[in-house]
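Help needed: design a sequence for this.
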């Protein structure tokens, strides 16, 4: 039995069997085959090699046209390597003699070749290592992409263990088959973690090299609340964890009771608590947990969940469903925030070197106008059905706002001409999630109807810390005084122009950060559905005057550690039930 700590990103305790999800760019798990399966594996290998060779021929022809015959020769070399008898025989032999899958044999033999080239003293050979890796990935993509073990093969629920998961993979999980998730990489606010929470799949990320240590069928325990994975647990431990689960279930019940209460502070200030959603079906949990509407609808998941770009009708159907489910409660639809970790780099023909600073969000939409317009039309049409607001993500310049408003006006005119209903007074707001927008908030306040602070990205860009990188998870600190100062200035700028300010980053669902936000003047919090009751309980236990004192003191500290220690110490006294006996807290 072994315990491994990671970052708990979605609560819940699960005991189950592991399913290691293959990823052709990483380790290929060794899977044994039966002797009668050898022929099938060899046929798969042949097919994958043939497909790769044809693909490379096409690449070579195109390259000849684009960059000239000489430079295109490299692809000729790739094809001849693929057709190399020695290489192929080596792979076939491994399948036959070691009774392993074609993908494991390909991975092993290509790696041996790469090691051999790497060891050669002549640098002309060492440069070939890249070519070999490239070739290996190409063949593996055909093997794993088309035939590899997939979740379809899981019979009962399994715990998916992977090096990394993209949000689109996570979205695609069948909730009946995937009972928990554990990954080597990732951070609390990475989109995969957000999706896991949205789907209520217990998850722990940032576990280092867990993937390499487990094989299909291994039994593990996932404790998503504490960020713990237990490999090969003994019976006592399993029993202990299962009884904890029951205790936690009861705890949820009391939070459900809290969900019914009015979110008013002890000194009578009303705070609006809304929910963040990625799918229309989540409106149900938001309302169940006591949310008063949706403050952030991450619509890019419409794109990520499907194979292709959604049509205007598909957008509209999703928004209509949300409006109907909300029954008159407000809905803020954020335009697609594609890019960075929400647009798998594999999808891009030219992967960006630095996607978090690349063509993402509003930049992406403004460069892909037909896609953007389709969504804007659908949002406008939905605005006729209920209280809808439109929010633009990752805004860094006034020009982006003006250009978007211009487009929206054009679309309004088109719709009016077509006789299609929409809300002429549709409120247009922006996310404040980069320091530039926070620092220029008073300028933006002249252009927009509302602000919503997105701490996930604001922290990432202010502290220069990748929100998805587990190695720097400890540096990802919403309570950093620099972040608090930016939020304070945004609130001041907004108030001067009567622009309402909400916060919809994950940190808004954390009671300690939420208390600081309230102290800084934020009166609307939009949080993951499961965090709504806990935030309501906080609101009913504290006064705004106290939050203001907390925030004032916090902002005067030098470091986030001081801020966190101070706020935790105070909140423990005000709300001891939010802290459990191991010191972790719940929203
Ligand atoms: C944020 O950045 O805080 C936010 C809410 O947006 P997302 O997490 O979707 O990037
Ligand atoms: Mg963001």
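Sure. Designed sequence:
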């Amino acid at each position: 039995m072994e315990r491994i700590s990671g970052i708990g990103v979605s609560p819940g305790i699960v005991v189950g069997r592991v399913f290691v999800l293959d990823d052709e760019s990483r380790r290929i798990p060794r899977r044994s085959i039966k002797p009668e399966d050898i022929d099938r594996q060899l046929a798969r290998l042949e097919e994958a090699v043939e497909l790769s060779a044809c693909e490379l021929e096409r690449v070579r022809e195109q390259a000849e046209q684009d960059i000239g015959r000489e430079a295109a020769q490299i692809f000729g070399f790739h094809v001849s390597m693929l057709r190399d008898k020695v290489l192929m025989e080596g792979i076939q032999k491994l399948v036959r003699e070691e009774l392993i899958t074609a993908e494991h044999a390909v991975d092993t033999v290509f790696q041996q070749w790469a090691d051999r080239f790497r060891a050669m003293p002549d640098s002309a050979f060492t440069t070939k290592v890249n070519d070999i890796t490239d070739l290996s990935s190409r063949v593996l993509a055909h093997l794993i992409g088309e035939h590899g073990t997939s979740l379809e093969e899981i019979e009962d629920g399994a715990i998916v263990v992977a090096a990394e998961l993209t949000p689109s993979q996570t979205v695609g999980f069948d909730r009946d088959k995937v009972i928990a998730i554990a990954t080597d990489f990732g951070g609390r606010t990475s989109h995969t973690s957000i999706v896991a929470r949205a789907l209520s799949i217990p998850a722990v990320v940032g576990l280092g090299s867990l993937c390499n240590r487990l094989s299909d069928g291994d039994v593990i325990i996932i404790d998503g609340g504490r960020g713990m994975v237990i490999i090969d647990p003994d019976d006592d431990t399993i029993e202990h964890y299962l009884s904890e689960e029951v205790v936690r279930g009861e705890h949820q019940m009391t939070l459900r009771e809290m969900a019914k209460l009015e979110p008013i502070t002890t000194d009578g200030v009303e705070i609006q608590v809304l929910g963040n959603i990625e799918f229309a079906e989540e409106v149900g949990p938001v309302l169940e947990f006591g949310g008063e509407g949706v403050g952030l609808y991450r619509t890019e998941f419409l794109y990520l969940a499907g194979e292709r770009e959604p049509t205007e009708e598909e957008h509209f159907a999703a928004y209509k469903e949300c409006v109907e489910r909300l029954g008159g409660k407000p809905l803020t639809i954020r335009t697609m925030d594609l890019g960075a970790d929400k647009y798998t780099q594999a999808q891009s023909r030219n992967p960006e070197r630095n996607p978090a600073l690349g063509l993402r969000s509003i930049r992406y939409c403004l460069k892909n106008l037909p896609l953007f317009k389709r969504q804007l039309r659908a949002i406008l049409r939905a605005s006729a059905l209920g209280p809808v607001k439109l929010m633009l993500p990752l805004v860094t310049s006034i020009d982006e706002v003006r250009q978007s408003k211009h487009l929206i006006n054009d679309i309004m005119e088109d719709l009016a001409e077509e006789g299609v209903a929409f809300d002429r007074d549709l409120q247009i707001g922006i996310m404040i999630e980069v320091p530039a927008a926070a620092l220029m908030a008073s300028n933006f306040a002249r252009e927009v109807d509302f602000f919503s602070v997105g701490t996930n990205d604001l922290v990432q860009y202010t502290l220069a810390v990748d929100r998805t990188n587990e190695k720097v998870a400890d540096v990802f600190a919403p309570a950093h005084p620099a972040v608090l100062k930016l939020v304070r200035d945004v609130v001041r700028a907004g108030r001067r122009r009567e622009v309402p300010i909400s916060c919809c980053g994950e940190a808004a669902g954390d009671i300690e950060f939420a208390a600081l936000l309230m102290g800084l003047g934020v009166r609307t919090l939009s949080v993951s559905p499961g965090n709504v009751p806990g935030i309501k309980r906080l609101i009913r236990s504290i006064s705004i005057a106290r939050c203001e004192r907390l925030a004032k003191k916090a902002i005067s500290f030098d470091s986030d550690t001081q801020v966190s220690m101070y706020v935790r110490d105070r909140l423990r006294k005000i709300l001891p039930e939010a802290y459990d006996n191991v010191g972790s807290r719940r929203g």
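Residues 296, 298, 337, 433, 454-457, 504-505 surround phosphoenolpyruvate (ligand 1) (CB under 6 Å).
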